[in-house]
Amino acid sequence: MTHENNPMNVSLFDDNAYKYSQAAELTLNAAILRAEIARSYEEFLEIFDKFYADDVEVSSESWPETIRGKERVRPLLVNFLVPLHVMAEVAGLSISVQQTVVPRDTSNETHSEWKIDFTGVGGRRCTLKWYAIRRWAASKVVYELHYGHEQIGGPLTQDDLNFSWGRTEVGLQSPS
Fold it and tell me: What is the pLDDT of residue 107?
């Protein structure tokens, strides 16, 4: 039996994988950017369920090991999202998310830069930045790596949140 490599077939496969992963990445990122954390954190969990494979592997340069499986990743996501939701909905923290595509040369892999801007009620800001690499199999993310984490600006404090409604409702007064 003679085996011949056909560059045309490999090229077509790579081109289709590239286009498919690009389309899936664009759809996923658009869903993330449209979701509003002040409205609901559950919307983000629905996006996760729709776009991530059951056996997804997630890693970060700040974690000692890779987390495998949706059931193990979901609690990490909830622990990240719930406090953001509460601070945005209840305490008036403004949160905006931005994403920028980073060029790459692998057909089933996408790279992007992410930024989350947090703005307190008095206008003080803190920005978190990181990069993400996703590997795709069909329309599902099978691997995601977060790296290059950076914080710009100091952490926001309780003074940057609007909790004054709670003090007056329960009869607590700030010292004069």
Answer: 79
